[in-house]
Amino acid sequence: MAYDADVIVIGAGLAGLVATAELVAAGRKVILLDQEPEQSIGGQAHWSFGGLFLVDSPEQRRMRVRDSRDLALQDWLGTAGFDRQEDHWPRRWAEAYIDFASGEKRAWLHTRGVRFFPVVGWAERGGYDARGHGNSVPRFHITWGTGPGLLAPFERRVREGVDRGLVQVRFRHRVTALSGSGGTLDTVSGEVLELSDAPRGTASGREVVGAFELRAQAVIITSGGIGGNHDLVRAQWPGRLGAPPARMLSGVPAHVDGLMLGVAERAGAHHINGDRMWHYTEGIENWDPIWARHGIRILPGPSSLWLDARGRRLPVPLFPGFDTLGTLEHIMRSGHDHTWFVLDRKTIGKEFALSGSEQNPDLTGRSVRGVLNRARVAVPAPVQAFMDNGVDFVVEDDLSALVRGMNALTDEPLIDEEELRREITARDREITNPFTKDLQVMAIRGARRYLGDKLIRTAAPHRILDARSGPLIAVRLSILTRKSLGGLETDLSSRVLDGRGNVLAGLYAAGEAAGFGGGGMHGYRSLEGTFLGGCILSGRTAGRAAARSVD
Protein backbone atom coordinates (compact mmCIF):
# COMPACT_ATOMS: atom_id res chain seq x y z
CA MET A 1 0.00 0.00 0.00
CA ALA A 2 1.33 3.43 -0.96
CA TYR A 3 2.09 6.14 1.56
CA ASP A 4 0.04 9.35 1.63
CA ALA A 5 3.00 11.37 2.93
CA ASP A 6 6.49 10.94 4.29
CA VAL A 7 5.40 12.05 7.77
CA ILE A 8 2.07 12.70 9.51
CA VAL A 9 2.07 15.26 12.33
CA ILE A 10 -0.85 15.13 14.77
CA GLY A 11 -1.50 18.53 16.34
CA ALA A 12 -1.03 22.03 14.91
CA GLY A 13 0.18 23.73 18.08
CA LEU A 14 3.67 25.16 18.53
CA ALA A 15 5.45 21.79 18.70
CA GLY A 16 3.58 20.55 15.62
CA LEU A 17 4.36 23.69 13.64
CA VAL A 18 8.05 23.54 14.60
CA ALA A 19 8.26 19.85 13.64
CA THR A 20 6.50 20.50 10.33
CA ALA A 21 8.76 23.46 9.58
CA GLU A 22 11.81 21.24 10.10
CA LEU A 23 10.36 18.59 7.81
CA VAL A 24 9.72 21.21 5.13
CA ALA A 25 13.32 22.40 5.45
CA ALA A 26 14.39 18.80 4.80
CA GLY A 27 12.15 18.57 1.73
CA ARG A 28 9.77 15.98 3.23
CA LYS A 29 6.08 15.70 2.40
CA VAL A 30 3.86 16.19 5.44
CA ILE A 31 0.21 15.86 6.38
CA LEU A 32 -0.56 18.02 9.43
CA LEU A 33 -3.76 17.02 11.27
CA ASP A 34 -5.72 18.91 13.91
CA GLN A 35 -9.18 18.40 15.38
CA GLU A 36 -9.84 22.15 15.60
CA PRO A 37 -10.68 24.54 12.75
CA GLU A 38 -8.04 26.57 10.96
CA GLN A 39 -8.69 29.66 13.03
CA SER A 40 -7.25 27.85 16.07
CA ILE A 41 -3.89 27.04 14.47
CA GLY A 42 -1.10 27.46 16.99
CA GLY A 43 -3.12 25.94 19.84
CA GLN A 44 -2.35 27.02 23.39
CA ALA A 45 0.78 28.92 22.42
CA HIS A 46 -1.34 31.61 20.77
CA TRP A 47 -2.82 32.52 24.16
CA SER A 48 0.50 32.52 26.01
CA PHE A 49 2.52 35.40 27.40
CA GLY A 50 5.41 34.19 25.26
CA GLY A 51 7.84 33.63 28.13
CA LEU A 52 11.06 31.76 27.32
CA PHE A 53 13.77 30.46 29.64
CA LEU A 54 17.20 31.62 28.45
CA VAL A 55 20.55 31.36 30.19
CA ASP A 56 23.35 33.98 30.04
CA SER A 57 21.52 35.99 27.40
CA PRO A 58 22.41 39.51 26.21
CA GLU A 59 19.21 40.72 27.91
CA GLN A 60 20.37 39.28 31.23
CA ARG A 61 23.84 40.74 30.89
CA ARG A 62 22.42 44.19 30.13
CA MET A 63 20.36 43.91 33.35
CA ARG A 64 23.57 42.95 35.26
CA VAL A 65 22.38 39.38 35.80
CA ARG A 66 25.17 36.82 36.00
CA ASP A 67 24.00 33.42 34.83
CA SER A 68 25.64 30.22 33.64
CA ARG A 69 24.86 26.74 32.43
CA ASP A 70 26.03 25.24 35.73
CA LEU A 71 23.81 27.54 37.80
CA ALA A 72 20.82 26.84 35.56
CA LEU A 73 21.37 23.08 35.77
CA GLN A 74 21.68 23.32 39.56
CA ASP A 75 18.36 25.17 39.68
CA TRP A 76 16.68 22.75 37.28
CA LEU A 77 17.73 19.61 39.12
CA GLY A 78 16.87 21.12 42.51
CA THR A 79 13.44 21.96 41.16
CA ALA A 80 12.76 18.76 39.21
CA GLY A 81 13.54 16.39 42.07
CA PHE A 82 14.02 13.41 39.76
CA ASP A 83 13.62 10.28 41.91
CA ARG A 84 12.04 7.55 39.77
CA GLN A 85 13.48 4.79 37.64
CA GLU A 86 11.52 6.16 34.69
CA ASP A 87 13.25 9.54 35.08
CA HIS A 88 16.22 8.35 33.00
CA TRP A 89 15.09 9.96 29.74
CA PRO A 90 13.42 12.97 31.40
CA ARG A 91 16.69 13.82 33.14
CA ARG A 92 18.65 13.51 29.90
CA TRP A 93 16.12 15.79 28.20
CA ALA A 94 16.49 18.26 31.05
CA GLU A 95 20.25 18.38 30.49
CA ALA A 96 19.69 18.76 26.74
CA TYR A 97 17.28 21.60 27.37
CA ILE A 98 19.75 23.44 29.61
CA ASP A 99 22.37 23.04 26.87
CA PHE A 100 19.87 24.45 24.35
CA ALA A 101 18.80 27.37 26.58
CA SER A 102 22.40 28.30 27.38
CA GLY A 103 23.59 27.64 23.84
CA GLU A 104 21.98 28.10 20.45
CA LYS A 105 18.35 28.69 21.47
CA ARG A 106 18.34 32.47 21.38
CA ALA A 107 20.45 32.76 18.22
CA TRP A 108 18.37 30.11 16.43
CA LEU A 109 15.15 31.93 17.28
CA HIS A 110 16.71 35.28 16.40
CA THR A 111 17.50 34.12 12.86
CA ARG A 112 13.80 33.31 12.50
CA GLY A 113 12.78 36.81 13.48
CA VAL A 114 11.98 36.32 17.18
CA ARG A 115 12.82 39.29 19.38
CA PHE A 116 12.61 39.86 23.15
CA PHE A 117 11.40 42.53 25.54
CA PRO A 118 14.54 44.02 27.14
CA VAL A 119 13.56 43.52 30.80
CA VAL A 120 13.99 39.93 32.03
CA GLY A 121 11.41 38.63 34.51
CA TRP A 122 12.11 36.64 37.67
CA ALA A 123 9.63 33.78 38.01
CA GLU A 124 9.57 30.89 40.53
CA ARG A 125 12.05 32.45 42.96
CA GLY A 126 12.01 29.45 45.28
CA GLY A 127 12.97 30.79 48.68
CA TYR A 128 14.71 27.63 49.92
CA ASP A 129 18.43 26.80 49.93
CA ALA A 130 20.81 27.00 46.96
CA ARG A 131 20.12 23.42 45.86
CA GLY A 132 16.36 23.65 46.29
CA HIS A 133 13.52 24.76 44.06
CA GLY A 134 13.58 27.97 42.09
CA ASN A 135 15.44 30.31 39.78
CA SER A 136 18.53 31.81 41.42
CA VAL A 137 18.43 34.68 38.91
CA PRO A 138 15.91 36.23 36.48
CA ARG A 139 15.54 34.09 33.32
CA PHE A 140 12.00 34.78 32.04
CA HIS A 141 12.35 36.42 28.61
CA ILE A 142 9.13 37.80 27.12
CA THR A 143 8.76 37.41 23.37
CA TRP A 144 8.12 40.69 21.58
CA GLY A 145 4.67 39.86 20.20
CA THR A 146 3.93 37.35 23.02
CA GLY A 147 2.60 33.94 21.94
CA PRO A 148 1.48 35.00 18.45
CA GLY A 149 4.89 36.55 17.84
CA LEU A 150 6.61 33.28 18.72
CA LEU A 151 4.26 31.22 16.55
CA ALA A 152 4.48 33.46 13.50
CA PRO A 153 7.83 32.34 11.98
CA PHE A 154 6.92 28.66 12.27
CA GLU A 155 3.40 29.09 10.91
CA ARG A 156 4.87 31.09 8.02
CA ARG A 157 7.26 28.25 7.15
CA VAL A 158 4.44 25.72 7.27
CA ARG A 159 2.31 27.82 4.93
CA GLU A 160 5.29 28.19 2.61
CA GLY A 161 5.42 24.38 2.63
CA VAL A 162 1.75 24.31 1.60
CA ASP A 163 2.53 26.65 -1.32
CA ARG A 164 5.41 24.41 -2.38
CA GLY A 165 3.22 21.30 -2.35
CA LEU A 166 5.09 19.75 0.57
CA VAL A 167 2.43 20.19 3.26
CA GLN A 168 -1.27 19.36 3.46
CA VAL A 169 -3.01 20.80 6.51
CA ARG A 170 -6.21 18.95 7.35
CA PHE A 171 -8.24 20.60 10.09
CA ARG A 172 -11.23 18.95 11.81
CA HIS A 173 -9.47 15.58 11.66
CA ARG A 174 -9.56 13.82 15.04
CA VAL A 175 -7.26 10.82 15.38
CA THR A 176 -8.76 7.83 17.19
CA ALA A 177 -6.30 5.02 16.39
CA LEU A 178 -2.71 4.27 15.45
CA SER A 179 -1.76 1.00 13.80
CA GLY A 180 0.89 -0.45 11.54
CA SER A 181 2.41 -3.32 9.67
CA GLY A 182 5.77 -5.03 9.67
CA GLY A 183 6.56 -3.75 13.15
CA THR A 184 6.17 -0.06 12.24
CA LEU A 185 3.37 2.29 13.26
CA ASP A 186 2.51 3.85 9.93
CA THR A 187 -1.28 4.19 9.86
CA VAL A 188 -3.39 6.95 11.37
CA SER A 189 -7.17 6.69 11.38
CA GLY A 190 -9.97 8.72 12.85
CA GLU A 191 -13.02 10.89 12.41
CA VAL A 192 -13.71 13.93 10.29
CA LEU A 193 -15.62 16.51 12.33
CA GLU A 194 -18.17 18.95 10.98
CA LEU A 195 -16.81 22.23 9.63
CA SER A 196 -16.83 25.01 12.18
CA ASP A 197 -16.54 28.78 12.10
CA ALA A 198 -16.15 28.96 15.88
CA PRO A 199 -13.76 31.75 16.89
CA ARG A 200 -10.33 30.74 18.15
CA GLY A 201 -10.47 29.03 21.53
CA THR A 202 -14.25 28.58 21.65
CA ALA A 203 -16.09 25.23 21.48
CA SER A 204 -16.08 23.99 17.88
CA GLY A 205 -18.54 21.08 18.01
CA ARG A 206 -17.90 17.35 17.83
CA GLU A 207 -20.40 16.06 15.28
CA VAL A 208 -18.76 13.37 13.11
CA VAL A 209 -19.36 13.66 9.36
CA GLY A 210 -16.86 11.14 8.02
CA ALA A 211 -13.83 8.93 8.60
CA PHE A 212 -10.24 8.86 7.36
CA GLU A 213 -7.21 6.60 7.21
CA LEU A 214 -3.74 7.81 6.22
CA ARG A 215 -0.33 6.18 5.98
CA ALA A 216 3.17 7.60 6.31
CA GLN A 217 6.65 6.32 7.07
CA ALA A 218 6.67 8.26 10.35
CA VAL A 219 4.08 9.75 12.70
CA ILE A 220 4.74 12.59 15.17
CA ILE A 221 2.32 13.18 18.06
CA THR A 222 2.17 16.84 19.15
CA SER A 223 -1.39 16.86 20.49
CA GLY A 224 -0.81 18.66 23.80
CA GLY A 225 -1.81 17.83 27.37
CA ILE A 226 -4.88 17.46 29.57
CA GLY A 227 -5.48 20.91 31.09
CA GLY A 228 -8.89 21.44 29.46
CA ASN A 229 -10.20 18.06 30.63
CA HIS A 230 -11.01 18.51 34.31
CA ASP A 231 -12.18 14.92 34.72
CA LEU A 232 -8.79 13.67 33.53
CA VAL A 233 -6.96 16.22 35.68
CA ARG A 234 -8.82 14.94 38.75
CA ALA A 235 -8.24 11.30 37.77
CA GLN A 236 -4.47 11.88 37.58
CA TRP A 237 -4.30 14.28 40.55
CA PRO A 238 -1.44 13.20 42.87
CA GLY A 239 -2.17 12.43 46.51
CA ARG A 240 0.90 14.44 47.55
CA LEU A 241 -1.01 17.60 46.58
CA GLY A 242 -4.04 16.72 48.70
CA ALA A 243 -7.54 16.23 47.33
CA PRO A 244 -8.27 17.76 43.90
CA PRO A 245 -10.17 21.05 43.98
CA ALA A 246 -13.94 20.90 43.79
CA ARG A 247 -13.83 24.00 41.60
CA MET A 248 -11.15 24.81 39.04
CA LEU A 249 -10.77 27.41 36.33
CA SER A 250 -9.38 26.49 32.91
CA GLY A 251 -6.21 28.13 31.71
CA VAL A 252 -6.55 26.41 28.33
CA PRO A 253 -9.46 25.76 25.93
CA ALA A 254 -11.58 22.62 26.24
CA HIS A 255 -9.98 20.99 23.18
CA VAL A 256 -6.83 20.41 25.28
CA ASP A 257 -8.44 17.12 26.25
CA GLY A 258 -5.57 14.61 26.47
CA LEU A 259 -7.47 12.03 24.41
CA MET A 260 -4.57 11.44 22.02
CA LEU A 261 -2.45 10.22 24.91
CA GLY A 262 -4.91 7.35 25.38
CA VAL A 263 -4.79 6.59 21.66
CA ALA A 264 -1.00 6.36 21.84
CA GLU A 265 -1.13 4.14 24.93
CA ARG A 266 -3.48 1.71 23.18
CA ALA A 267 -0.93 1.50 20.37
CA GLY A 268 1.76 0.50 22.87
CA ALA A 269 3.29 3.84 23.89
CA HIS A 270 4.50 4.25 27.46
CA HIS A 271 2.79 7.18 29.20
CA ILE A 272 4.81 8.09 32.29
CA ASN A 273 4.60 10.61 35.13
CA GLY A 274 0.91 11.24 34.62
CA ASP A 275 0.64 12.42 38.23
CA ARG A 276 3.06 15.28 37.62
CA MET A 277 1.20 18.39 36.59
CA TRP A 278 1.44 22.16 36.74
CA HIS A 279 -1.53 24.22 37.87
CA TYR A 280 -1.53 27.81 39.03
CA THR A 281 -2.79 29.12 42.35
CA GLU A 282 -3.39 32.74 41.27
CA GLY A 283 -6.34 32.15 38.91
CA ILE A 284 -9.13 34.69 38.45
CA GLU A 285 -12.28 34.36 36.36
CA ASN A 286 -11.98 36.14 33.05
CA TRP A 287 -14.63 38.87 33.07
CA ASP A 288 -14.74 38.56 29.24
CA PRO A 289 -14.33 34.79 28.73
CA ILE A 290 -13.42 33.06 25.47
CA TRP A 291 -13.87 29.45 26.54
CA ALA A 292 -15.82 27.75 29.32
CA ARG A 293 -14.52 28.39 32.86
CA HIS A 294 -11.90 30.69 31.33
CA GLY A 295 -9.36 31.72 33.93
CA ILE A 296 -6.47 34.17 33.77
CA ARG A 297 -3.34 33.86 35.87
CA ILE A 298 -2.02 36.84 37.77
CA LEU A 299 1.75 37.16 37.36
CA PRO A 300 2.39 38.81 40.73
CA GLY A 301 5.24 40.82 42.13
CA PRO A 302 6.33 39.89 45.67
CA SER A 303 4.42 42.42 47.78
CA SER A 304 0.79 41.28 48.03
CA LEU A 305 -0.22 39.80 51.37
CA TRP A 306 -1.24 36.19 50.55
CA LEU A 307 -3.92 34.83 52.85
CA ASP A 308 -5.67 31.50 53.06
CA ALA A 309 -9.47 31.26 52.98
CA ARG A 310 -9.64 32.16 56.69
CA GLY A 311 -7.39 35.19 56.40
CA ARG A 312 -4.15 33.64 57.71
CA ARG A 313 -0.87 34.46 55.96
CA LEU A 314 0.61 31.63 53.96
CA PRO A 315 3.82 30.26 55.49
CA VAL A 316 7.37 31.09 54.44
CA PRO A 317 8.42 30.99 51.61
CA LEU A 318 5.00 30.85 49.94
CA PHE A 319 5.05 34.44 48.80
CA PRO A 320 3.64 35.60 45.44
CA GLY A 321 5.82 34.29 42.61
CA PHE A 322 8.02 31.97 44.70
CA ASP A 323 6.79 28.35 44.63
CA THR A 324 3.70 27.45 42.62
CA LEU A 325 3.30 23.80 43.58
CA GLY A 326 4.43 24.30 47.16
CA THR A 327 1.63 26.84 47.45
CA LEU A 328 -0.82 24.52 45.73
CA GLU A 329 -0.05 21.72 48.18
CA HIS A 330 -0.53 24.04 51.15
CA ILE A 331 -3.85 25.32 49.79
CA MET A 332 -5.24 21.88 49.09
CA ARG A 333 -4.47 20.78 52.65
CA SER A 334 -6.18 23.84 54.12
CA GLY A 335 -9.70 22.57 53.53
CA HIS A 336 -10.60 25.29 51.02
CA ASP A 337 -9.96 25.78 47.31
CA HIS A 338 -9.46 29.54 47.31
CA THR A 339 -7.03 32.07 48.78
CA TRP A 340 -6.75 35.88 48.79
CA PHE A 341 -4.35 38.59 47.78
CA VAL A 342 -4.76 41.72 49.91
CA LEU A 343 -2.98 44.80 48.59
CA ASP A 344 -3.57 48.39 47.53
CA ARG A 345 -3.69 50.49 44.39
CA LYS A 346 0.00 51.38 44.57
CA THR A 347 0.97 47.70 44.57
CA ILE A 348 -1.50 46.48 41.95
CA GLY A 349 -0.46 49.20 39.53
CA LYS A 350 3.17 48.13 39.52
CA GLU A 351 3.10 44.45 40.40
CA PHE A 352 0.12 42.87 38.63
CA ALA A 353 0.67 41.49 35.15
CA LEU A 354 -1.87 39.18 33.56
CA SER A 355 -0.82 36.08 31.67
CA GLY A 356 -2.04 35.76 28.11
CA SER A 357 -1.53 37.41 24.75
CA GLU A 358 -4.99 38.98 24.80
CA GLN A 359 -4.33 40.56 28.22
CA ASN A 360 -1.18 42.31 26.95
CA PRO A 361 -2.19 44.19 23.80
CA ASP A 362 0.90 46.41 23.93
CA LEU A 363 3.38 43.53 23.95
CA THR A 364 1.30 41.39 21.60
CA GLY A 365 0.89 44.27 19.17
CA ARG A 366 4.59 45.14 19.47
CA SER A 367 3.71 48.69 20.41
CA VAL A 368 6.58 50.62 21.99
CA ARG A 369 4.20 53.48 22.72
CA GLY A 370 1.80 51.07 24.44
CA VAL A 371 4.54 49.65 26.64
CA LEU A 372 5.68 53.14 27.62
CA ASN A 373 2.09 54.14 28.41
CA ARG A 374 1.73 51.07 30.63
CA ALA A 375 4.64 52.31 32.72
CA ARG A 376 3.14 55.80 33.00
CA VAL A 377 -0.39 55.00 34.16
CA ALA A 378 -1.34 54.26 37.77
CA VAL A 379 -2.97 50.95 36.81
CA PRO A 380 -2.61 49.30 33.36
CA ALA A 381 -5.88 49.13 31.41
CA PRO A 382 -6.25 45.30 31.41
CA VAL A 383 -5.78 45.21 35.20
CA GLN A 384 -8.18 48.12 35.68
CA ALA A 385 -10.75 46.23 33.60
CA PHE A 386 -10.59 43.36 36.10
CA MET A 387 -10.84 45.78 39.02
CA ASP A 388 -13.96 47.26 37.44
CA ASN A 389 -15.60 44.07 36.13
CA GLY A 390 -13.96 41.01 37.68
CA VAL A 391 -16.12 38.95 40.03
CA ASP A 392 -13.06 38.12 42.15
CA PHE A 393 -12.11 41.72 42.94
CA VAL A 394 -13.15 43.75 45.98
CA VAL A 395 -12.10 47.42 45.99
CA GLU A 396 -12.86 49.54 49.06
CA ASP A 397 -11.52 52.59 50.91
CA ASP A 398 -11.44 50.99 54.37
CA LEU A 399 -10.70 47.56 55.79
CA SER A 400 -14.16 47.00 57.29
CA ALA A 401 -15.83 47.40 53.89
CA LEU A 402 -13.13 45.26 52.29
CA VAL A 403 -13.77 42.37 54.69
CA ARG A 404 -17.53 42.61 54.13
CA GLY A 405 -16.90 42.38 50.39
CA MET A 406 -14.57 39.42 50.80
CA ASN A 407 -17.07 37.51 52.91
CA ALA A 408 -19.83 38.26 50.40
CA LEU A 409 -17.88 36.29 47.76
CA THR A 410 -17.79 33.04 49.75
CA ASP A 411 -20.43 30.59 50.96
CA GLU A 412 -19.73 31.50 54.58
CA PRO A 413 -18.01 34.52 56.21
CA LEU A 414 -14.56 33.13 56.92
CA ILE A 415 -12.58 36.37 57.29
CA ASP A 416 -12.48 37.96 60.75
CA GLU A 417 -11.94 41.70 60.43
CA GLU A 418 -10.07 42.24 63.67
CA GLU A 419 -7.72 39.33 63.10
CA LEU A 420 -6.96 40.54 59.57
CA ARG A 421 -6.39 44.07 60.87
CA ARG A 422 -3.88 42.73 63.41
CA GLU A 423 -2.11 40.76 60.68
CA ILE A 424 -1.78 43.73 58.34
CA THR A 425 -0.86 46.15 61.13
CA ALA A 426 1.93 43.86 62.33
CA ARG A 427 3.28 43.61 58.80
CA ASP A 428 3.05 47.39 58.34
CA ARG A 429 5.10 48.01 61.51
CA GLU A 430 7.99 46.11 59.90
CA ILE A 431 8.03 48.54 56.96
CA THR A 432 8.98 51.58 59.05
CA ASN A 433 12.44 50.20 59.85
CA PRO A 434 15.22 49.14 57.45
CA PHE A 435 15.61 46.00 59.59
CA THR A 436 12.95 43.31 59.79
CA LYS A 437 12.24 39.72 60.80
CA ASP A 438 9.42 39.47 58.23
CA LEU A 439 10.90 37.39 55.42
CA GLN A 440 8.43 38.68 52.85
CA VAL A 441 9.51 42.23 53.57
CA MET A 442 13.11 41.05 53.19
CA ALA A 443 12.15 39.51 49.86
CA ILE A 444 10.57 42.74 48.64
CA ARG A 445 13.71 44.70 49.49
CA GLY A 446 15.88 42.01 47.92
CA ALA A 447 13.81 42.06 44.73
CA ARG A 448 14.33 45.79 44.35
CA ARG A 449 18.08 45.25 44.22
CA TYR A 450 17.43 43.79 40.75
CA LEU A 451 17.01 46.67 38.30
CA GLY A 452 14.23 44.98 36.33
CA ASP A 453 12.10 44.48 39.42
CA LYS A 454 12.77 47.98 40.70
CA LEU A 455 11.78 49.55 37.38
CA ILE A 456 8.56 47.74 36.56
CA ARG A 457 7.72 44.81 38.86
CA THR A 458 8.13 45.65 42.56
CA ALA A 459 6.52 48.53 44.40
CA ALA A 460 8.58 50.45 46.94
CA PRO A 461 7.95 49.04 50.45
CA HIS A 462 5.05 50.88 52.06
CA ARG A 463 2.26 50.32 54.59
CA ILE A 464 -0.84 48.63 53.17
CA LEU A 465 -3.11 50.61 55.49
CA ASP A 466 -1.62 53.94 54.46
CA ALA A 467 -4.58 55.78 52.90
CA ARG A 468 -2.25 57.51 50.43
CA SER A 469 -1.63 54.14 48.74
CA GLY A 470 -5.32 53.17 48.57
CA PRO A 471 -7.91 52.11 47.89
CA LEU A 472 -7.55 48.66 49.42
CA ILE A 473 -8.00 45.66 47.14
CA ALA A 474 -8.74 42.00 47.81
CA VAL A 475 -8.55 39.40 45.04
CA ARG A 476 -10.08 35.94 45.41
CA LEU A 477 -7.76 33.38 43.82
CA SER A 478 -8.76 29.98 42.43
CA ILE A 479 -6.83 26.97 41.12
CA LEU A 480 -6.20 27.30 37.40
CA THR A 481 -5.45 24.22 35.30
CA ARG A 482 -2.59 24.52 32.86
CA LYS A 483 0.10 21.93 31.99
CA SER A 484 0.84 18.21 32.06
CA LEU A 485 4.40 17.60 33.21
CA GLY A 486 4.32 13.91 32.28
CA GLY A 487 3.77 12.41 28.84
CA LEU A 488 4.83 9.80 26.32
CA GLU A 489 8.29 8.45 27.10
CA THR A 490 10.80 9.30 24.36
CA ASP A 491 14.52 8.96 23.81
CA LEU A 492 16.72 11.92 22.85
CA SER A 493 15.60 11.55 19.22
CA SER A 494 11.94 11.95 20.28
CA ARG A 495 11.22 8.32 19.38
CA VAL A 496 8.37 6.94 21.48
CA LEU A 497 9.17 3.97 23.73
CA ASP A 498 7.02 1.12 24.93
CA GLY A 499 6.76 -0.11 28.52
CA ARG A 500 9.92 -2.21 28.19
CA GLY A 501 12.02 0.67 26.89
CA ASN A 502 11.93 -0.45 23.26
CA VAL A 503 11.46 2.01 20.41
CA LEU A 504 8.04 1.95 18.76
CA ALA A 505 9.24 2.10 15.17
CA GLY A 506 7.78 4.98 13.20
CA LEU A 507 6.32 6.88 16.18
CA TYR A 508 7.65 10.16 17.60
CA ALA A 509 6.27 12.61 20.16
CA ALA A 510 7.00 16.22 21.07
CA GLY A 511 5.68 19.11 23.11
CA GLU A 512 3.35 18.64 26.05
CA ALA A 513 2.30 15.20 24.76
CA ALA A 514 5.87 14.09 25.50
CA GLY A 515 6.11 15.94 28.80
CA PHE A 516 8.01 18.48 26.65
CA GLY A 517 10.64 15.79 26.14
CA GLY A 518 11.35 12.31 27.45
CA GLY A 519 7.99 11.99 29.20
CA GLY A 520 8.63 14.65 31.83
CA MET A 521 11.79 16.77 31.58
CA HIS A 522 10.55 19.13 34.31
CA GLY A 523 10.27 16.42 36.93
CA TYR A 524 7.88 17.50 39.67
CA ARG A 525 8.09 21.26 39.13
CA SER A 526 8.97 23.86 36.55
CA LEU A 527 11.23 26.89 36.51
CA GLU A 528 8.76 28.72 34.19
CA GLY A 529 9.40 29.94 30.68
CA THR A 530 10.25 26.32 29.89
CA PHE A 531 6.98 25.13 28.32
CA LEU A 532 7.14 27.01 25.01
CA GLY A 533 10.87 26.34 24.84
CA GLY A 534 10.22 22.66 25.45
CA CYS A 535 7.78 22.62 22.55
CA ILE A 536 10.42 24.24 20.35
CA LEU A 537 13.28 21.92 21.29
CA SER A 538 11.29 18.68 21.21
CA GLY A 539 9.38 19.71 18.07
CA ARG A 540 12.62 20.53 16.31
CA THR A 541 14.19 17.27 17.47
CA ALA A 542 11.21 15.17 16.36
CA GLY A 543 11.01 16.88 12.97
CA ARG A 544 14.68 16.42 12.26
CA ALA A 545 14.74 12.80 13.46
CA ALA A 546 11.64 11.87 11.44
CA ALA A 547 13.10 13.57 8.37
CA ARG A 548 16.24 11.45 8.67
CA SER A 549 14.23 8.26 9.11
CA VAL A 550 12.23 8.36 5.86
CA ASP A 551 13.42 7.14 2.48
Description:
About 35% of the residues lie in helices and about 20% in strands. The radius of gyration is 23 Å and the shape is globular. The mean pLDDT is about 95. Helix 1 (about 15-25) runs parallel beside helix 6 (about 145-165), helix 1 runs parallel beside helix 18 (about 530-550) and helix 3 runs antiparallel to helix 4. Strand 1, helix 1 (about 15-25) and strand 2 form a beta-alpha-beta unit. The chain has about 550 residues and is α+β, with helices and mostly antiparallel strands. Strands 1, 2, 5, 6, 7, 8, 19 and 20 form an eight-stranded mixed beta sheet that branches. Strands 9, 11, 12, 13, 14, 15, 16 and 17 form an eight-stranded mixed beta sheet that branches. It has a two-stranded antiparallel ribbon with strand order 3-4.
